[in-house]
Design goal:
The complex is a heterodimer of chains A (about 210) and B (about 120). Chain A is α/β, with parallel strands linked by helices and about 210 residues long. Helix content of chain A is about 45%, strand content about 10%. Chain A folds into two domains: about 20-50, no CATH class; about 55-210, Nitrile hydratase alpha /Thiocyanate hydrolase gamma (Nitrile Hydratase, Chain A, Alpha-Beta Complex), CATH 3.90.330.10. Chain A contains eleven helices and four strands. Chain A has a two-stranded parallel ribbon with strand order 1-4. A two-stranded parallel ribbon of chain A has the order 2-3. The termini of chain A are far apart. The N and C termini of chain B lie far apart (about 55 Å). Classes of the chains: A alpha/beta (about 210), B mainly alpha (about 120).
């Protein structure tokens, strides 16, 4: 690191970290060459910070719980079914919905990097991108579920889906008991991000009330 | 209404909070999306490059807990931009130095802007 015993004047100028310098350099070059438009970048960031998040996925799940035709369409071709709801699919890839049942629990991971269904879940949580999750989810899914506080019956098969750049997955969790007659809006409150990754279950009404 | 996951050893957990910790992470993320949309690279190319960067960082001792993820992301971006002939390492370094110079001459608190004189020929 640089010495701090000289040239230490506070009114001398601004500082950018090494990473900030590299990001600015890249952005300037790409803008100058016409590859990107700074306003479009801001729009992307704004969308991911405020509009695109797990709530989009939760609405998809709630709709599938209440509308059998939509559920069927979702399981058949999630890309098409989700696009009917008006979510912007920026990644333009193949989305697959996998349904949890009493017999089978699904979990998603990306062992290579961290491919993730951005358009329905927003950006991935830090742990999804971590090496421990990426490696353990495949080798010991039941152990990972235990870490997340999820205990499944021994008979329930656990299937782990490894996402790729082309195919990404979203878990359709089981609808909790005691939610008969609930509106989609209300049901969506039960659908956590983790329940759509498969490291959690949908909340039950009592948990929601907490 | 989010239920935070129980913190456990091994897999780091977080609440369902904001996903960009610093503005540069958001900028780097958005640049990759914009470049993909413009057709500079395909998602398989992107995933392969990012995967390589993550492996390389792990080999160099990065704990790879997800916190450094956007650093790998930026490395992948720079590599792809160079490989596609948009800007080589030398160009990236020249612009990086120019921004450093711009920051240096900008009074604290004022917006930092790049000017032609920031490039030392």
């Amino acid at each position: 690191m640089a010495d701090h015993d000289h040239d230490h004047s506070h009114d001398h100028g601004s500082e950018l970290s090494e990473t900030q310098l590299r990001v600015r350099a890249l952005e300037t070059i790409l803008t100058e060459k016409g590859y990107i438009d700074p306003a479009a970048l801001d729009a992307i960031v704004d969308a991911y910070e405020t509009k695109i998040g797990p709530r989009n996925g939760a609405m998809v799940v709630a709709k599938a719980w209440t509308n059998p035709a939509f559920k069927q369409a979702l399981l058949k071709d999630a890309t098409a079914a989700v696009s009917t709801l008006g979510h912007v699919s920026r990644v333009g890839d193949h989305l697959v919905a996998v349904e949890n049942t009493p017999q089978r629990h699904n979990m998603i991971v990306c062992t290579l990097c961290s491919c993730y269904p951005w358009e329905v879940l927003g950006l991935p949580p830090v742990w999804y991108k971590s090496a421990p999750y990426r490696s353990r989810a495949v080798k010991d899914p039941r152990g990972v579920l235990g870490d997340f506080g999820v205990k499944l019956p021994k008979e329930t098969e656990i299937r782990v889906w490894d996402s790729t750049a082309e195919t990404r997955f979203i878990v359709l969790p089981m609808r909790p008991a005691g939610t008969e007659g609930w509106s989609e809006e209300r049901l969506a409150d039960l659908v956590t991000r983790d329940s759509m990754i498969g490291t959690g279950l949908a909340l039950n009404p009592a948990e929601l009330a907490k | 209404m989010a239920q935070p996951t129980v913190p456990v050893p091994g897999v780091p957990c977080d609440a369902e909070g904001p996903v960009f910790r610093e503005p540069w992470e958001a900028q780097a993320f958005a640049m990759a999306l914009a470049l993909h949309e413009r057709g500079l690279f395909t998602w398989p190319e992107w995933a392969a490059t990012l995967g390589e960067e993550i492996k390389r960082a792990q080999a160099a001792g990065d704990p790879d807990t997800g916190e450094t993820y956007y650093r790998h992301w930026l490395n992948a971006l720079e590599r792809l931009v160079a490989r596609k002939g948009v800007a080589d390492a030398g160009t990236l370094a020249r612009y990086r130095d120019a921004w450093d110079h711009a920051a240096d001459r900008t009074p604290h608190g004022a917006p930092i802007e790049l000017k032609p004189e920031d490039f030392r020929s």
